[in-house]
Write a structure and sequence with these properties.
Layout: E1 6-7, E2 10-13, E3 18-20, E4 23-26, E5 29-38, E6 41-44, E7 49-57, E8 60-62, E9 65-74, E10 78-80, E11 85-88, E12 91-95, E13 99-101, E14 104-106, E15 135-139, E16 143-145, E17 150-152, E18 158-161, E19 165-167, E20 181-184
Parallel strand pairs: 1-4, 2-5, 3-5, 4-6, 5-7, 6-8, 7-9, 8-10, 9-11, 9-12, 10-13, 11-14, 12-15, 13-16, 14-17, 15-18, 16-19, 18-20
């Protein structure tokens, strides 16, 4: 059985690299840059940040900040706890399992866009800088949003599931889907 490390500083998994561990407890700043985390479970502690793109072959429990900068796959269930935030800046967060949200799920912001003043120091693109990225969250096993949670993806985002969508959010400011799409995919019975 692989070791079960706790990270409280900063760590990075580079492209084409794999971190194979038992249970990963993450309490610092963890960057996944095109690599893979293979674990029995991944937990992101309050105040911690896990960000990037790549694959996580483990169920994930997020109590901190979970940032998706490009396509990311989670092979297992994903739990976003109260007080935690998932931000999809760009790409697709695919969850091969269920998504249970008690915290906040939001879309991208223009400051992280590929077309921003920081990322365009030579001034090749004229302002205003607007988000041109698309954001998608796809949970194959269904989604649950509890009453105190927030779902506010960016404009033109897609929230998609092939399972049930159980949403108890009862305040429109915390269910901000006015410029996004909720897509329910499934097979019904043909009688």
């Amino acid at each position: 059985t692989p070791a079960s490390p706790s990270f409280n500083g900063s760590a990075t998994v580079l492209p084409n690299a794999t971190l194979s561990v038992g249970a990963l407890a993450q309490g610092g700043t963890f960057s996944l840059l095109g690599g893979t985390i293979a674990a029995t479970s991944v937990s992101n502690a309050p105040g911690a940040q896990l960000s990037g793109y790549g694959d996580i072959a483990a169920p994930v429990t997020n109590a901190g900040l979970f940032d998706v900068d490009a396509n990311m796959q989670v092979i297992g269930n994903f739990t976003n706890q109260a007080g935690a935030t998932v931000t999809v800046f760009s790409g697709t967060l695919t969850i091969f399992g269920t998504l249970a949200n008690s915290g906040t799920i939001i879309g991208s912001v223009a400051s992280r866009s590929a077309l921003s003043a920081t990322n365009d120091p030579q001034g090749l693109y004229p302002p205003p800088f607007v988000d041109r990225a698309t954001q998608t969250i796809f949970a194959t096993g269904g989604m649950t949003m509890d009453a105190a949670s927030t779902l506010a993806p960016g404009p033109a985002a897609t929230i998609r599931t092939a399972g049930n969508f159980d949403c108890a959010i009862n305040l429109n400011s915390r269910f901000a889907m006015n410029q996004a799409t909720l897509q329910l995919n499934g097979r019904g019975s043909f009688a």
